[in-house]
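Try this one yourself first.
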């Protein structure tokens, strides 16, 4: 399928996501008009040539399009948004800081079980205070992100784990299939050990919804337990439902965004 120009392509296809190795400078101003789509570019241009070489493809426009498509669906982290709002960038940085701080806090908590040193006790108290304060700050700033706000208001979810997922995966939530997302978040793997950060945060979010008795997800957990499923299996089911619900909201939010005539 061929088009005379970028505007014609966008008008006929109405894509949710556009991926490219790079974008001509003359198109950048035009692209800012299309608020209903996400524009992604390849982080490292060498990856495209590596993909072609690995598949024995010659360098042609058609082969580049095929390679970029496969790369995006296999490894979306190879791409980054062409544009990101200042709030989204700030929230990402805050959640990454929270992840690091939470890990140090866990180490300090463990140290308290092996020593009665007053300094170790004080360090744990300080870290807990800063971690909780940072979580509050993250929630306040994340409420400016439409998808996070929808999850809070309509799903009853909140917290740094949710914020990390929303701010780092806002694009793939709208583009990957349900099965693709479940693979990305490793929901087909049973052991906890060796899971990636995204998977751990999603499962922590599922635990929190059950612990704090979020009725929407507690009902799913209790239903699976009544069927004889183990606690871990029921938590994984809750995690899958949370991921599907966030994906649905992400798609809904994008479809509600007006696109140019």
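Now uncover the answer:
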């Amino acid at each position: 399928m061929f088009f005379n120009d970028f505007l014609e392509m966008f008008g006929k296809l109405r894509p949710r996501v556009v991926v490219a190795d790079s974008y001509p400078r003359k198109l950048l101003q035009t692209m800012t008009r299309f608020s209903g789509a996400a524009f992604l570019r390849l982080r490292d241009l060498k990856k495209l040539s590596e993909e072609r070489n690995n598949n024995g493809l010659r360098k042609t426009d058609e082969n580049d399009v095929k390679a970029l498509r496969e790369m995006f669906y296999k490894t979306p982290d190879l791409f980054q948004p062409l544009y990101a709002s200042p709030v989204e960038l700030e929230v990402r940085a805050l959640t990454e800081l929270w992840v690091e701080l939470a890990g140090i806090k866990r180490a300090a908590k463990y140290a308290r079980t092996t020593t009665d040193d007053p300094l170790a006790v004080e360090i744990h108290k300080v870290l807990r205070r800063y971690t909780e304060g940072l979580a509050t700050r993250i929630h306040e700033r994340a409420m400016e992100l439409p998808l996070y706000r929808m999850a809070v208001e309509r799903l009853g979810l909140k917290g740094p784990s949710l914020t990390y997922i929303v701010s780092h995966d806002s694009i793939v939530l709208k583009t990957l299939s349900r099965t693709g997302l479940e693979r990305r978040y490793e929901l087909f793997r049973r052991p906890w050990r060796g899971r990636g950060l995204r998977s751990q945060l999603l499962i922590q979010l599922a635990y929190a919804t059950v612990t704090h008795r979020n009725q929407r997800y507690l009902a799913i957990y209790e239903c699976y337990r009544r069927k004889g499923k183990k606690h871990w299996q029921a938590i994984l089911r809750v995690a899958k439902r949370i991921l599907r619900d966030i994906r649905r909201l992400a798609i809904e939010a994008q479809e509600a965004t007006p696109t140019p005539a």
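Discussion: The radius of gyration is 21 Å. Residues 176-261 form one domain.
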